[in-house]
Design a protein that fits this description.
two-stranded parallel ribbon, Transcription Regulator spoIIAA, 6-stranded mixed β-sheet, globular, alpha/beta
Length: 127
């Protein structure tokens, strides 16, 4: 079972231990969008570790400074990005420099889900 959100700038699929976000074409992800994400995270993951998967199926921009805000979410233990073209790959590699927790780039959704699941399992063992 999962929860689905269709908000102004994205579609969000919330699962037990992670969420998948697909930003809509042409949007810019900035602090306003980060606050919306934080509200969803608080609602579904307030007392447990979780991961964020960015499934980049459309073209959009990210203000890399949002990663400093995202790092304040203590139970967000990993970010996975699935770029769909070389330009998105280059953007994800640049964004990775701004985030000081596990952040990996994948070719497909299945691999990213396996990776975030392992990170979450390891973090939960440490608790």
């Amino acid at each position: 079972m999962f929860h689905y959100y269709d908000i102004d700038h994205a579609e969000i699929f919330v699962f037990d231990d992670f969420l998948i976000k697909q930003v809509k074409e042409g949007h810019v992800i900035d602090l306003k969008e980060t606050k919306e994400l934080q509200a969803i995270l608080k609602k579904h993951f307030s007392k447990k570790n979780m991961a964020y998967i960015s499934n980049r199926v459309t073209s959009f921009s990210v203000n890399p400074l949002v990663y400093k805000e995202i790092e304040k979410i203590s139970n967000l233990v990993a970010i996975a990005v699935i770029p769909s073209n070389p330009k998105m790959l280059a953007s994800a590699q640049f964004e990775k420099k701004f985030y000081n927790r596990p952040f990996e780039i994948f070719d497909n959704l299945s691999a990213s889900i396996l990776w975030v699941s392992k990170i979450i399992q390891n973090k939960n063992k440490d608790m």
